[in-house]
Amino acid sequence: MPAPNGKKNASWLMPLIWVLIAIVCIQGYILLNKKQTLPPVTKPPIVKPEKKPLVKPVPTKQGQGKIAIVLDDWGFNRSHCKYLESFGVPVAPAVLPGLQYSKDVIACAIAAGQEPILHLPLEPHNNKDPYPRGYILTTWMSQKEVLKLLKKVLDEHPGVIGVNNHMGSKATEDKPMMTTIITELKKRGLFFLDSVTSVHSICAEVAQETGIRFTRRDVFLDNRNERAAIERAFEDGVKIARSKGFVLMIGHDRALTLQIVQEEIRKYKEQGYEFLSLKDYIKAQK
């Protein structure tokens, strides 16, 4: 039997449902027609890359110039042999004969891959330093005496690949004497480097006549044993290399010179300058 009030309940429930449906439809219509407001479009901030130090490009070796370096007066100590390894490029130690460490320096130079030369004492116009008799080859010696002493010195210092003059402003102006010396060096397959201690040197002339491998000094690095002066001299040498293609610089076995030469080598090697051994330097000049 149906509930006595069933029709009464159904009579008010249906209108309520239609009212709810109407409300939902009205809200949907309002939402669909409401203008959407979006946040303004902004460009992302420009992030600048962090600045880094400029890396200078290393120029090619073409056109930068070729450099040869000789350091005179080795043989007084062997403590500086460490530099011969650390230079990282060819640097020729010119070893004075007959000193306590002359042979040791020649040996350590060869072990370091460097090519030592003999720093041959020749007579200057003026000399205030004491030397033992017979240590310096002089113009008043006979040709026979010069040759005898020269052979003795060369025989006592095997391993050198060439010779340059220690002092010698007077001797290098004497053609008979230099002819005797250079002829013997050529016989032994050695080259001669004129340190140019005299503007009147005849070594180039004798070298051409004998056919020996030959070169000459362009710049003295340490006439003044001061950092600024040595650095300026090295820079002068680099300018010659840049303009003429070649330069040969001579310094000495001194702590300050060795330190600066090491610094300058690194500097100019990065700029593309080529550092040659003396043998390669002489070949490249031809």
Residue fraction in strands: 15-25%
Distance from N terminus to C terminus (CA atoms, Å) equals 133 Å
Low-confidence stretches: 1-8, 34-61
Mean pLDDT: 86
- The helix/strand order is HEHEHEHEHEHEEHEHEH
Tell me the name of the CATH homologous superfamily of the domain at 69-224. Answer: Glycoside hydrolase/deacetylase
How many helices? The count is 9
**CATH arch. level architecture of the domain at 69-224:** Alpha-Beta Barrel
Q: What is the CATH first-level class name of the domain at 69-224?
A: Alpha Beta
Q: Structural class, from secondary structure content?
A: alpha/beta
Any idea what the shape is?
Answer: elongated
State the share of residues found in helices, binned by percent.
40-55%
Count of DSSP strands: 9
By oligomeric state, this entry counts as single chain
